[in-house]
């Protein structure tokens, strides 16, 4: 059955890895929408922050389990932008994946700009609440908090520019899960969150010339009240939700879809992050444009040091990859040719073998 679905997809045209065009925002947008219009879903796997240099990451683990490689490689900029070693490894891994025709999806967990903390310290710098008065200072141009915030945005711009200059158009998904309270940007007034989205959006696009970013927006879990945070004046290219359900047959995925999908004119909806994968029936019903499976124990719950009801058995990962609708790297077809990505001086990666029990 899967070969029939993919055959119909191939009839829509496009080429594989011997392509002709450079990757840009329009080509990535067309690829995602074309795939969704064909009734298919792009596969995706997140790699842990600062682990892109490792020989065997969660991307390789998923490939080992399923026999297939994911189209979307999720990467995290936290801790990368200030560390030359991690920065080089990050960009090399992204170039390698994109050169094979894959899509890079970037998440950013920015540090709290009004507290002293090192970039990349997730638990002490990204997690945690910020009161509304302090948040208002961050998004008010000219304040000291705004200047610190914009300095971090400018630092990120340098990293993103390296990717776009190498021929990539990454899916950029900042300030996610804003409907929750665990990040410093969470559950703020609609007006102030709109400012948080708008000011860096304008700076990255206009000041830094990063016009090949593909912007994605994703609230949390059921996403109730998500419309309060939808950036209508700087509309994203794609929307989705970050889903961490405790029951694969539960209502979370469908509730989130019902709250988020109607907000965007494309009508598309992605599993921008997913822990426990939904049942096949729910997955088929929602038909996400792509899914991005989260890292480590979410691929294999037995890797968790504690019981994890929101994590998958390895068989859950395999069953999703086996669905007719799920497109993997060997099945991917770009509408107008696969991207040409600069791989000059790209060092070869060693064979990727994972010993049993490796927790990466």
From TrEMBL:
Q: What class of enzyme is it?
A: hydrolase
User: According to the UniProt entry, what is the EC number of this protein?
Assistant: 3.2.1.78
User: Which GO terms fall under molecular function for this chain's record?
Assistant: mannan endo-1,4-beta-mannosidase activity
* Keyword Hydrolase in annotation: yes
Q: Which residues form a coiled coil?
A: none
Pfam families assigned? Glyco_hydro_26 (PF02156)
Report the leader peptide range. none
Per UniProt, residues of the GH26 domain are: 23-330
GO terms, biological process: substituted mannan metabolic process
UniProt xrefs under SUPFAM superfamilies: (Trans)glycosidases
According to its UniProt record, which residues of this chain constitute the active site?
177 (proton donor), 273 (nucleophile)
Query: Keywords of this protein's UniProt record, alphabetized?
Result: Glycosidase, Hydrolase
- InterPro entries noted in UniProt: GH (IPR017853), GH26_dom (IPR022790), Glyco_hydro_26 (IPR000805)
Disordered, as annotated region: 337-360
Family the UniProt entry places it in: Belongs to the glycosyl hydrolase 26 family.
Name it: Mannan endo-1,4-beta-mannosidase
Which organism does this sequence originate in? Parvularcula dongshanensis
The record lists the lineage as: Bacteria, Pseudomonadati, Pseudomonadota, Alphaproteobacteria, Parvularculales
